[in-house]
Design goal:
4-stranded parallel sheet, Hypothetical Protein Tm841, Chain: A,domain 3, 6-stranded mixed sheet, 12 helices, Rossmann fold
Length: 310
């Protein structure tokens, strides 16, 4: 089943669409393939010629396909009332192989960017699919790259690589660019509660009790080599200000690439985007809502930002 919804993309000022307009999808040296954990809207996916293998989410006994269409109809309202935590699964090798087939129609090689191997089986499944492609699609080099990132951070890596592909970049150049950005991109976010992470077995119940009792909104970081809590503000306003502080400190004076994210908290996410636009020199800044695959693990109410600076 397709869990359809509304695409959400604000302020994606993308110079690469016009720069790559002269290169059609039929003559690109490299096609970019990724998974739906990026939560990139379908319009952005189409404009950049990106191929997406979908995750799956099972909630209330129903299994849905996560994907670039947004997949957000009533997911978060269902999540709030679900008695058991939804289960998620990475794209199976067959789904990756289908994406490689599609990419092979208009490119000489494939660069596949996956969600961090520490978080998902997506990377391993893509590698299996790449081995399958060696016999089914002879002459099509497939490189599978572990982004070591998640959500908006993975999306930023994918977008930069897609721009290079549209400009005719080589597979080796795109691989090197992806590696460089994956070392620099940072994700910081605050959660409304630790309840959903606890239900996934990642934190003890006492941590949930303490954060709820004192209205703590944990600020978390996910960056290559650094994962965990970086702050415990006692209000959403305090957590919001911590995100602004972290992002501004890291990006001031640099050309910023920013993806503001949320899980059913659009007003705060839009406010964060406006604040960062005013404070920073943004090469690109846009808004995405978590698809169910990511939202199932964080719960509703998350607001976050992924970014890197030139």
């Amino acid at each position: 089943m397709d869990l359809q919804g509304t695409d959400e993309s604000t302020g994606l000022a993308d110079k690469s669409v016009s720069e790559g307009a002269g290169r059609t999808l039929q003559n690109m040296p490299v096609a970019i393939v990724t998974d739906s954990a990026t939560a990139l809207p379908s319009a952005v996916v189409a404009a950049h010629g990106i191929h997406v293998a979908s995750m799956e989410v099972t909630i209330g006994g129903d299994t849905f396909e996560d994907g670039p269409g947004g997949a957000l109809h009533d997911f978060y309202s269902r999540l709030r009332t679900a008695k058991t935590l939804p289960t998620t699964s990475a794209p199976k090798p067959g789904a990756w192989l289908e994406a490689f087939r599609s990419a092979s129609l208009h490119a000489d090689s494939v660069f596949c960017i996956t969600l961090s191997a520490n978080l998902s089986a997506a990377y391993d499944a893509a590698r299996v699919a790449a081995e399958m492609a060696e016999s089914e699609l002879p002459g099509l080099p497939v490189t599978v790259f572990d982004s070591r990132a998640a959500a908006g951070s993975e999306a930023l890596i994918v977008l930069e690589c897609a721009r290079m592909a549209q400009r005719g970049g080589t597979l080796s150049d795109i691989t090197e660019r992806a590696r460089s950005i994956s070392e620099r991109v940072r994700l910081v976010a605050y959660l409304d509660t630790l309840e959903y992470i606890h239900r996934g077995g990642r934190v003890p119940k006492i941590a949930v009790w303490a954060t709820d009792l004192f209205n703590i909104k944990p600020v978390m970081e996910f960056t290559a080599g650094r994962v965990g809590s970086i702050g415990r503000p006692r209000s959403r306003a305090g957590a919001f200000n911590r995100l602004v502080k972290e992002t501004t400190r890291d990006l001031i004076g640099r050309r910023a690439h920013i993806n503001v994210m949320h899980a059913d908290a659009v007003d705060e996410a839009q406010a964060l985007m406006r604040e960062l636009e005013q404070r920073l020199e943004c090469e690109e800044i846009f808004l995405t809502q978590f698809h169910p695959f990511m939202g199932a693990h964080t719960g509703p109410g998350l607001v976050g930002v992924s970014y890197w600076g030139e």
